[in-house]
Amino acid sequence: MLQVQLEVGADPAEVGRARRWARSRLAGSGIGDDEPLAETLILLISELVTNAVVHTGCPAVLRMLFGGPGVRVEVADASDRAPARRRAAGDDTGGRGLELVDGLADRWGWQREGAGKRIWCEIDRAEKAASDCASDGPSEVHPPTREPRLYL
User: Fold this and answer.
1) What is the biggest distance separating any 2 CA atoms in the chain, rounded to whole angstroms?
2) Of 32, 56, 124, 135, which has the fewest beta carbons less than 10 angstroms from its beta carbon?
3) 3-state SS, residue 117
4) Which of 28, 5, 31 is CA-nearest to residue 125?
5) Which of 22, 48, 36 is nearest to 101 (CA)?
C-alpha cells in the first residue's frame, strides 16, 4: 500500500494547493487526469480539506492511500468538534459538503484521533472502472453492496 500526505495550513487558500498536490499524486499512482475517478477524488479532497480548514480554523493533514481495491482519502485535524451535516437552502453557497461526500464515496466516516479527529472516504477503483466500460451486449446490473452510511 502506498501512502502520501500533505500538511495543509489553516488558510482557505490552501485548498487549491491541496487539489494541485493531489492531482500530481493521482497521476503518479496511475490514475489519469482525464479519468472520472480522478475528478471524483479531487472533488472529495476539496470538500474534506475545505471542511477541515474553514470549520475548524486548524491546520490539517491530507493523506491518500493507494492499494487494494480502491483509494482512501483521509483528512486529520486538531479540532475535537465532530463533523456535522448542515441543511443548505437553495441559494446558500455552502452546507453541502458532507452530502457530496455521502453521494460520491463508496464509504466514509470519521473517528477521534488523539485530541482531534480524522474524516475519511473510500472509492472502489474496480467498481468505478467497470462502470465506465461500454458493454457489447445485454448484461445484468446489480447495485453495489455498500456499508451503512454514517449520518452526522
Assistant:
1) 54
2) 135
3) strand
4) 31
5) 48
Tracing cell 475517478 back to the chain, one arrives at: 37
CB proximity list for 47: less than 8 A, separation 6 or greater: 97, 98, 100, 101
β partners of residue 60: 8, 77
CA dihedral 59, 64, 12, 101 (to 10 degrees): -120
Position 127, amino acid: E
CA distance 88 to 49: 19
**Nearest Cα residue to 98 out of 142, 140, 51, 39:** 51
Q: Residues 117, 16, 91, CA angle at the centre, nearest 5°?
A: 85
Of 69, 40, 87, residue with least CA distance to 127: 69
Q: How many CA atoms lie within 13 A of 105 on its CB side?
A: 28
CA atoms within 13 A on the CB side of 47: 26
Q: Is the pLDDT of residue 4 over 60?
A: yes
Q: Where are the beta strands (DSSP E) in the chain?
A: 2-8, 60-67, 70-77, 107-113, 116-124
DSSP state of 68: T
Confidence (pTM)? 0.78
